[in-house]
Amino acid sequence: MSAEPLAVFGKALRDQRRGLVFWGAGLALVTLMYTSSFDPDKVTESASGFQKALALDDLATGAGFLRATVLGMIVPLLLLVYVTLTGSKAVAGEEETGLLDLYLAQPIDRSQLLVQRFAATCLAVLGFSVVVLLELLVLNSALDMKVEFGNLLVTVIGLALLVITFAAVAFATGAITGRRSLTLGITAGYGAFSFIVNALASQSEAIEPLKYLSAFHYYLGGSPLREGFDPAMLVLLLAPAVLLGLGLARFKSRDLNV
Predict the structure, then answer these.
(1) For the segment 25-59, what is each residue's pLDDT rounded down to a tens digit?
(2) How much is the pTM?
(3) Count of Cβ atoms closer than 10 Å to residue 27 Cβ
(4) Do residues 153 and 136 lie in contact, with contact meaning Cβ atoms separated by under 8 Å?
(5) Cα–Cα nearest to 218, from 187, 241, 195, 202
(6) Quick count: other Cβ atoms within 10 Å of Cβ 197?
(7) Average pLDDT, rounded, for the chain
(8) Structural domain harbouring 73
(9) Is residue 258 part of a domain?
(10) How many folded domains does the chain comprise?
(11) Are 125 and 157 in contact (CB under 8 A)?
């Protein structure tokens, strides 16, 4: 391995280049398929509590439709899968296979490896978010969805921060435990918890306080597609830094699993 300052970052992107193309194409196709089904004449009468929990009671407006489908559920959950798989492999997966020892035998320390691989994943997430944003800008105009550009931009930025938070969970868990299966379980479990709690918080007083533990709450809680930027989104800037810091502190001090 080269000792260049960004050698790990570059290699992480090169190793994923084919997968990134497929993921980007898949996200573009899914976004097109679901957004194209927008119907401003669709009216949901007597919406059930379950429909309200999933924001399916307002599909006739562009903001409501995107909140319930593409930006509120489909794309975030697909990207959760991506960062869960990527984050669990980045440290824990290679530690279990013995590859991590080979990397660390080169002139690079653990902090560089963890931070640069996380940065590569963040860049991929940002790239996917740009693809989704550009496509939605075209569809927003073509389908007359009437979502303001600024609100759409803020929401997609929030989407990127949400997914990066999930990526930080995966990287931190892998760095702390060195166990791929545990990393997969914790990251996927937190993602499911966040989505479900955010959906049900408005329907249950018992669940409502738990929304502050949900990353989805800080992403969609302020209705960014209608209201624009919500200061609560700043939590999604702080959380990844804290999580990665915790993972890095443990990763630098513990013995690797052999």
Answers:
(1) 999 999 999 999 998 876 555 555 545 555 566 78
(2) 0.91
(3) 22
(4) no
(5) 195
(6) 21
(7) 89
(8) 7-253
(9) no
(10) 1
(11) no
